[in-house]
Prior knowledge:
By secondary structure, the protein is mainly α. It has 4 helices and no strands. The longest helix is centred in the middle third of the chain and has 36 residues, at 78-113.
Amino acid sequence: MSVVFVRLPTMLASLCFLTLVLVNCTNVALRYVWSSPLSWAEEVMICLTLWGVALMFPVLTYQRAHLRINLFDSLMSSIGRRIRGAIENIALIGSAGFVAYQSSIVMQLYLNSGETTTAARMPMWLYQGSFFAGFTLTALAALFSLPSYLKDDVEDQQAVPETAE
Length: 165
């Protein structure tokens, strides 16, 4: 499962950010050297940023690298921490699933309307698609990682670095 929730999204997000840097550098050079910037660069960079960030949601979820406040963890038993982790994960599944569902509705509206961005003429569903993909994969990553919260050998719910195979 680490291929689906870690490696592939990380590679795609890296590709988004690399493309973003290339578009930005090209636009800066065209703007300041030749006084002819790309009219569509900002819209494309925003879309690439949205996709890059959304693709990292499931990675953080699968690796249990969420931001959390562990104020009471030292007071909890091992079972208490596992129960707290499972409840957090179930809440994440529900909230990510809800956001994915709502974004699918908005994405469908954009698909039906055929609306595009002003300069790049990119379909608007492409922007909304990043939310749908990111939160759908996050809900699935949380669902697949739920059993690890319930195992007896899981003491610390902090992120575990991915090891190379």
